[in-house]
Amino acid sequence: MSFEMPPPNTPEEGVAAPTISSRADARRIFGSGVPSTIYDSPASSPGGSRRSSVADYGPYQVPSRGHTHDQSEYGIDYQALDYAQQIDEALLCPICHTPFFMPMTTKTCGHTFCASCLDRALETQHVCPIDRRPLDISRDISQTRTRVILDQLDRLKVKCPNSGCDHVCSRELLYAHVERYCEQTLVRCPDHHCDEMICRKDARPENGCLHYVTPCPYCEMAITFNDLERHYDQECTGQEAECPHCDAVLVRHRLAKHIATDCREVETHCQFQSAGCKQVAPRKDIEEHLKNGCIYEAIANLMQAREQDHKIINELKGRLDALDGRTRHLERYGGGGAGSSGVRESSAFTRAAPPSSGLTADALNNLNRMQSATSGDADIDEANHNITLDDLFETFDQENNHHNDSNYSSPQAAAAAMAADAPPAPWAHNSGDGPWESPEDYMLSQFEAMEAKIEDLRKMMVELDGRHTMRLVNDTMRMNEQIAELGSKVGVLGMHTTWLMSMQRQSRGQQNGSGSTPGTTRSNISASGGGSGGTGGNNEEGRGRTNTAATGASSSSRTATQTQQGSRNGDGESARGRYLNTSDIPPLRRSSVGRGENPPRL
Amino acid sequence: MAVAQVPRNFKLLAELEKGEKGMGAGASSFPCWRCVMNAGLTILVICFIRYTGACSYGLEDPEDILMTHWTGTIWGPPHGNHENRIYELKMECGANYPKEPPVIHFVSQINLPGVSQTDGRVDPNYVGILRDWTRISAELSRNPRPKEDPLSLEAALIAIRKYMEEHKKLPQPPEGSKYPMYK
Amino acid sequence: MALPKRIVKETERLMAEPVPGISAVPHEDNLRYFDVEIHGPSQSPYEGGVFKLELFLPDDYPMTPPKIRFLTKIYHPNVDKLGRICLDVLKNNWSPALQIRTILLSIQALLGAPNPDDPLAPDVAKTWKENPSVAVATAREWTQQYALPSQ
């Protein structure tokens, strides 16, 4: 370390070599208060001068609970992690080609990099590594805050970096795993006088300090106790044993494991032995055999699938048991009569116990069956009268939402769950330890449960019916009022017309002394007057009139033109007569006819 | 921490570039020393050498793509019989450089223990760095130190110059004389 | 000796989907050291030649550019007698977002379009500027002489 000479392998001019190792870098970026630990590589501290870095501008806001500031303490190199899944190219940092860790985004061009990568890239040139736009560290860079990206990154499945640990977890949980749980994490030796590090699994106070020197049982080499395993693997040459099957030479310590799992010559069974494969051959041949496709593989897969199915069935069985127990409980304490309170109770129950979908699904199941089978039940029939099945589902869902424990947002999902929730013969498996002595008992209890549910549903339907009736009444009330209003308006119009006509008649009578058709006009007016006079009180009549008025709106205008033409041609009499002869002429139409008669004279 | 093992060619390229920079010659090809001497630019050369330290080196043939044959010069250490003398050397980097030390010959005649009087070859056992070269390089490949490289042609020349300094009182052959095989 | 993930990935990709006309194979004992072969681009004086190069990824890669040089003699204004290449992306214009494959593609492009205004071999560049036909002929001759695939 004391050589003064500059390195001969300095890079070309203009490309200054960053002189900081990634570990030191991570430290600089992610935590200033990190204690100096043994994880530091010897070359990590080239100088005390602290350069401004990307992350200096505003402490990195911890994006999720998994990211803490002193992540480097446990030496997790996030860029060296192995991921247990395929990773979308878009999540890869263009510099380290691994998924972003603490991503930073440039404000000017919107490119994203890991904080440490960008930091190191900017050491040499203050430009964006992708498009070479000038970047100001303090101004143009901000943390990536897009939650979608951060969440995706957090959820990436990653393998534990400690050798010997097969743990796979979400990336956000990795730190906690390494820090608290991983047995392979190096921790301080339990002996306070010892500064060495040791695997967590070996760091037990009762073990004491394992950093004592002991001779290797095979090669006599003095070695610290906790280093023995590594020593066997890498260095030990003494007491070698030759594998009796292959030519491998290895430490005797490892021979058993080698024969059990590694030796390519030892005779071994096909891995599908349990499925019936009788193949026994050296491991290398078995590998070949597997590569060519063991015919028992399909069977093994099938058996495995069956195993899984069994597991699911057992689980469902358990759930059903719980459900039935609950139902019985309800039966006992809720009583058959107080169906509504029973349901309240049961939904409270449901909320409390996790497998809460059972009741909902069961009820729906029963509802379905009830719809098809119990049509003879008069009450239910009546309730069902105006309500479709979908309505019921809807109400049911509303009810569930009300209780905040809806597990199925749609009837389809509920139906699917229903199908899954129905085991073939639950009592058959329960005969040993279940609460029922016989199938009959089981059926009885089921029947009781169903009855309670039917009762509940009936209540619900009655309620629904009432709601519908209310709505109908409310709506018709409004309509009635409107119709009455319209009727009165028509009456007022009729009165106006009468008044106008009489005015005209008077003035004409004064001018000409005698009109051409006074008699018919008079009769016309009297008829319309009678009609409008009746509009005030009777709703029924008013409605009828409005109806005809609405339907006759177009025809009235048509007849108006007709009558105009007719009167111009001189046979207005006949047109008028036609209307007078019809039995049910609405006042409005009549008035329009009367008006149609007037214009030639005005 | 793992560190990249720099391959021979790139190590030599870097050394060459360093040598060129040390000489203040920015051009890509290094002028052969003998040409410079023949051109009578000794004074200039001395200035260069004074300026850069005590040693310089470069490729014998600027087109030698394998960079095997090198020349070096040592500015004789002061206060002794080497003062104001310029010693020319030849260095040969084999295919296994830097695992194995370069083979170094004096071109200029010199009276020094460990230097053959027939062909000027420097016996590695007399110069520390050449003697320990293989051991150091093995050590480096196990424990690489990225920021420094104790093994280089320059280091070898400096070590030889230091060795000369230890024997500065020895009488020396006339200045400018060369071993017969290089004449 | 742990190799950074990025180098592993780049190597895997170079092997799995090689760039047409370019091959790069890492040395077994030094995975940062690649033997590269670039085929001379068509319609250039280097057409038909296979040029050997060596490439080394220094410690700081990708923060510093890879080191690369021709091992095959080549008559080109931007390549000096030791095979060193004058290419901006290998020096000041390097960006860590660049990769081995992009660099090799740039070098292939440089073969197709020599740039005598920014020379590394002044004599070659001079000829290239003053007497292009002679230069092209020389380049073709050298290609035939040194870069034939059979060698």
From TrEMBL, chain A:
<feature type="region of interest" description="Disordered">
    <location>
        <begin position="1"/>
        <end position="57"/>
    </location>
</feature>
<feature type="compositionally biased region" description="Polar residues">
    <location>
        <begin position="517"/>
        <end position="527"/>
    </location>
</feature>
<feature type="domain" description="TRAF-type">
    <location>
        <begin position="231"/>
        <end position="287"/>
    </location>
</feature>
<protein>
    <submittedName>
        <fullName>Uncharacterized protein</fullName>
    </submittedName>
</protein>
<feature type="region of interest" description="Disordered">
    <location>
        <begin position="398"/>
        <end position="438"/>
    </location>
</feature>
<feature type="compositionally biased region" description="Low complexity">
    <location>
        <begin position="505"/>
        <end position="515"/>
    </location>
</feature>
<feature type="compositionally biased region" description="Low complexity">
    <location>
        <begin position="411"/>
        <end position="422"/>
    </location>
</feature>
<keyword id="KW-0479">Metal-binding</keyword>
<feature type="region of interest" description="Disordered">
    <location>
        <begin position="331"/>
        <end position="360"/>
    </location>
</feature>
<feature type="region of interest" description="Disordered">
    <location>
        <begin position="505"/>
        <end position="602"/>
    </location>
</feature>
<keyword id="KW-0862">Zinc</keyword>
<keyword id="KW-0863">Zinc-finger</keyword>
<feature type="domain" description="RING-type">
    <location>
        <begin position="93"/>
        <end position="132"/>
    </location>
</feature>
<dbReference type="GO" id="GO:0008270">
    <property type="term" value="F:zinc ion binding"/>
</dbReference>
<dbReference type="InterPro" id="IPR001293">
    <property type="entry name" value="Znf_TRAF"/>
</dbReference>
From TrEMBL, chain B:
<dbReference type="InterPro" id="IPR000608">
    <property type="entry name" value="UBC"/>
</dbReference>
<dbReference type="Pfam" id="PF00179">
    <property type="entry name" value="UQ_con"/>
</dbReference>
<dbReference type="InterPro" id="IPR016135">
    <property type="entry name" value="UBQ-conjugating_enzyme/RWD"/>
</dbReference>
<protein>
    <submittedName>
        <fullName>Ubiquitin-conjugating enzyme E2 variant 1</fullName>
    </submittedName>
</protein>
<feature type="domain" description="UBC core">
    <location>
        <begin position="7"/>
        <end position="183"/>
    </location>
</feature>
From TrEMBL, chain C:
<dbReference type="GO" id="GO:0005634">
    <property type="term" value="C:nucleus"/>
</dbReference>
<comment type="similarity">
    <text>Belongs to the ubiquitin-conjugating enzyme family.</text>
</comment>
<protein>
    <recommendedName>
        <fullName>E2 ubiquitin-conjugating enzyme</fullName>
        <ecNumber>2.3.2.23</ecNumber>
    </recommendedName>
</protein>
<dbReference type="Pfam" id="PF00179">
    <property type="entry name" value="UQ_con"/>
</dbReference>
<feature type="domain" description="UBC core">
    <location>
        <begin position="2"/>
        <end position="148"/>
    </location>
</feature>
<keyword id="KW-0067">ATP-binding</keyword>
<feature type="active site" description="Glycyl thioester intermediate">
    <location>
        <position position="86"/>
    </location>
</feature>
<keyword id="KW-0808">Transferase</keyword>
<dbReference type="GO" id="GO:0061631">
    <property type="term" value="F:ubiquitin conjugating enzyme activity"/>
</dbReference>
<dbReference type="InterPro" id="IPR016135">
    <property type="entry name" value="UBQ-conjugating_enzyme/RWD"/>
</dbReference>
<dbReference type="InterPro" id="IPR023313">
    <property type="entry name" value="UBQ-conjugating_AS"/>
</dbReference>
<dbReference type="GO" id="GO:0006301">
    <property type="term" value="P:DNA damage tolerance"/>
</dbReference>
<keyword id="KW-0547">Nucleotide-binding</keyword>
<dbReference type="GO" id="GO:0070534">
    <property type="term" value="P:protein K63-linked ubiquitination"/>
</dbReference>
<keyword id="KW-0833">Ubl conjugation pathway</keyword>
